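Hi P.,

Sorry for the delay on this. The queue was packed all week, but I finally got your sequence through. Input first:
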Amino acid sequence: MRVVVQRVKNATCHVDGKLTGKCDNGFMILVGFTLTDTEAELKLLAKKVAGLRVFNDENMKMNKSLKDINGTILSISQFTLYADAKHGNRPSFTEALPGDKAKVLYDKFNNILRTEYNLHVEEGIFGADMKVQFLNDGPVTIILDSKEL
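Then the structure:
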């Protein structure tokens, strides 16, 4: 499982011109799954996302978590996090979990963030052609991979 966490001032997701999710002062996360992912990876990365201390404290040090600042999350499914472009210029996605199975994990991951960490999470629409806009704050971008934690 891979999650790209971006600290944002704001973020929005639109599908067919309609707003599907947004966040203000928090994280815009891209979430992707591979063939071997289980619920263990969901729990591990949800804990990591919830606990990341990348927001400034009163001394301008990154020392506060999302909960500390009352921030929100915009979660976007992103199978292309498992793109393999080693051979040629057209990426392969054979390591990405198929959509029906990935959607189950994506929904569970977002629900873990909501229920176990009491975070406000909004979403795009899984599998849709999403238009995502965000204002990266810092910029701060953290890449989390369950295989490396």
